Amino acid sequence: MNATADELAGVVDLFGGLTRPELERALSEAAFRADGQSVDETALEAAIDDALESFALVRHVRTRDGERQSLLVAGPTAFPSVPEHAEDVPHILDVERRRLDREALGETARERFVEAIEDAVDAGDANDDRIRHLLDVSYDLEAWAPVDLAAERDRLEAALE
Prior knowledge:
mainly alpha; 2 strands; 2 domains
């Protein structure tokens, strides 16, 4: 089973957020339900990395009951869709739905966005497509979380000139 970024977002969105091992288990369960298929670990690793790079997923670290937990959540560019055979995964996994602080999640995404801008601007003209993509992401991110990215947009626009 190979999942798209939107399907990864759909699975994590069923729970509000999942740790990476929980996401792997959820996808394994869905793959097994689909005629005994399995998850291609290499493809899954690449799909998660691509989803994080495109902001379809956001990695958010939260502290709960004194324990730090790294969660993958559906990001601002995702159009979450639940893959076939994954609709019953919440009944299979023993994972409670997670409620996340939107402001803290927005700040996490904003920090990652600023890092992505720095990488794209440092790469110069060779990265104009990435800079244009990040301009689009800035609007999605502002609609997704309570953040203001006007200054970051100005920096991206200046880099394109």
